[in-house]
Amino acid sequence: MTSMWLVLIHALGLGLIDEIAANTDPSDCSTNFPGSASCDRYHDGAAFLQAMQSRSQQTLGADRVDLEILSQGAKKALRAGCDINMLNDGACIGDDVCEGCNLLGANADLPTNDQFFPNRELRCEGNRTCSQVVGAPLAFVSAGQAMVCIGDATCTDVWFISNVGAVCCSSANDGDTCSNSSFNLTVNDVLCQNDVCCDGTRVCTNSTMLEVESLLCRGLLACSDSQVILEQDLYCNATSEFNPSSSGSTCSDSTFTFVVNDTHVVDCLGDFVCENSNFSFNQNSAISFECDSEAPGTGGGQGACNNATINLAPGACMDLNCTQDDDCIDLVVNLNGGICWFNMFNQENRPNFVDVCNKTNSSQCGPITPQEICCRDDPSCASCCVDINITTTTQSGPPDVNSTSTTTTTTTTTTTTTIYPRNRRNRRNRREHRRNRRENRRNRRQHARQYRYS
């Protein structure tokens, strides 16, 4: 019997035995080792071998080992972890897949086998799907592609991605999607509108989002405890469209830095939305800032923008509207050379900002057109990136007139590859018009918005 175990150890190696033991869960133990309480006792190779020996003696006799059990454990050990084929396909679909990724060097740029994902997106859909080890960030090889995370605890602890065109994170249940994550969007991406949408309970919490164009956050604690650098607009709504039963404290305890001296719309709508958060704006910006804890569609509440801090810059102009009596309590406005106007309706008792802001009953910073967020009604980000046509033409040089060859051949080859991401074709003209309008608005740097006061 001893010689048989030595042969088994020599053939498979103690390292593999340890790996199988470490990757065996309680359900496997109850199936493969009836009567055992837990896999916890199989904490090393020796314990696992002892368990296998006992099992083989019970069922197969003293001279035989159940190699099928070992084979099943080995297959599970190989299946677990980060599947590069799923990543290259842009489809990590299912529970507990594409997890613990530790891709380094060239393998950290996705996809590793092409310029684009088949559908121009990396989709992580399931529960506990898509994660990576600390210090092993990933990047998209080519710009113009979206990151889509759907499910519970998906793209979480940790999930750091750069060169992303747009990001959509959503959860209909427990949430925590895209929490403890980092998304660095592509600067000056001509193929995508670099928007980010986070919808659901604790979606995009404790996260970092860089080079964002506009950000939409909906749901309980969505986009809370986060750091965001953005160019355009911010929309925070207490109520999730995916999980409306849980709401409030959206965009709370976070820092939002607007880096472009453009027009900006900030909406903090619902129960304790934007509470304890910090907002900083660039010089010569025109800002419309609304805090309304009882805005339509939020379910009502109180305390929008309470204890928040707004930092202006030289030449900046802000229209501030705190709608309810219990909104904007202890809100602080630091002018820093800018100017602030507030609607005097029901706001005279807010000493923290009425001492530095001017009373008015109309907009003073001009008409501002809110930007249409590409993923507002589309959790798949399908509307955020344009179709792409790649045309490659190769041609040989002119024939050599001095050549003594009897045959001269000139070849021209044209190859056209068209990539049409799903659900995008019919929206192309509308997106193009919207992009041109946005570009013209930026070039003019109009600091305007017609703001509505009640």
TrEMBL record:
Annotated Basic residues bias: 422-454
Signal peptide: 1-22
Keyword flag Signal: yes
Protein name according to UniProt: Autophagy-related protein 18a
Residue numbers spanned by region Disordered: 395-454
Key words, A-Z: Signal
Regions of compositional bias (Low complexity) in chain numbering: 402-421
